[in-house]
Amino acid sequence: MDLSIIFRSCDTVDCFSGRERIVTATKQELILRSLNSLLRSMAVANSCYGEDSKDELEMDLTIIDDHSTDETQDYMDKLCRSWGYNPKMLQVEGEGNGDSLKTNYEWGLEQGKSLLFFVEDDYIHHSDMLLESLEFYANNVGVRPGMDDMVVHPCDYPDRYYQSLHTSWILPGKARHWRSIRQTTCTFLMSRNTLEEHWDKYMGFTQYGKDPGVTEDTTINRVYDKVNCFSPMPTLSLHLQFDTCISPFTDWEAWWEANKVDLDELSIGSGGLHPSIFSTESSPKITE
Predict the structure, then answer these.
(1) 47-56, 102-111, 139-148: which has the minimum mean pLDDT?
(2) What is the pTM (predicted TM-score) of this model?
(3) How many distinct helices (H) and strands (E) make up the chain?
(4) How does DSSP assign 228-286, residue by residue?
(5) How far apart (Å, rounded) are the C-alpha atoms in residues 140 and 138?
């Protein structure tokens, strides 16, 4: 399996909506903890993917940054290298959320591998997130009847239990169930073919924040009328935005603390894989 991971970062805007986040940390700290959790998940996937199928995983990491400080960019690069990854660092062409999305999707279409994982900088991920997402994708696409392709959204949002209610397919995964959904944010796993086939919708979403009539529902969520989209229960990622975004049955503070980055110890070539990355708990329990 060939995978490109595209992490989209910006430390100059704390929260796009302007509201106060559930975490009181600086945006730089949020970015680094988010990236740390992603790197941990990549390490688990690298070590464990294909144990049953013998399929090999080839993946690369690109950071598309929207004019963060030099310090934040340097920390991101060092953090990646401490986990053994050499990321490609790119700057957004333009400025702002819309231009960031445009650079994000254009890079995925033109430079990405056959499978793409777009990741926002305010999510904390379970250590098994990437492994379970990839295995669920591989075990269903082209295997289950009617499943020619899919999008995987690794976050289980609470409004799906009381507001955005609809009939769903429930499928088994490795360690949790997955249900079909009709809405996502900008964090998802997808094929480059789907990105190309629905290019107009993704380009339409790059006007988000510029055109008040543009939302997920008028653009990218329309993709799920044609392509299956699934999210896990319980969640594999947490959106650290507001109380109303926190997934059920999770201790977000434990996930947050588990991915703390010690800036004093962060240096190029230091670190490496921690023995405790292989967590099977719903909330990562990691001892540094």
Answers:
(1) 47-56
(2) 0.91
(3) 7, 11
(4) EEEEEES-SEEE-S-GGGPPTT--HHHHHHHT---TTT--TT-----GGG---SSS---
(5) 6
Q: Which residues contact 155 (CB under 8 A, 6 or more apart)?
A: 123, 185, 187, 231, 235, 236, 237, 238, 239, 247
What's the rounded Cα separation, in Å, for the pair 216 and 14? Answer: 20
* Strands in 66-159 per DSSP E: 88-91, 115-120, 123-125, 150-152
Q: Confidence class of residue 17 from pLDDT cuts 50, 70 and 90?
A: low
**CA atoms of 173 and 170, how far apart (whole Å):** 10
**Token pair for residue 145?**
């009847």
Residue 208 token pair: 């988000």
At residue 29, φ and ψ (nearest 5 deg) are -65, -40
From the list 42, 48, 46, the residue with the least C-alpha distance to 63 is: 42
Q: Which amino acid is it at 246?
A: I
The distance from CA 156 to its chain's CA centroid, rounded to whole angstroms, is: 12
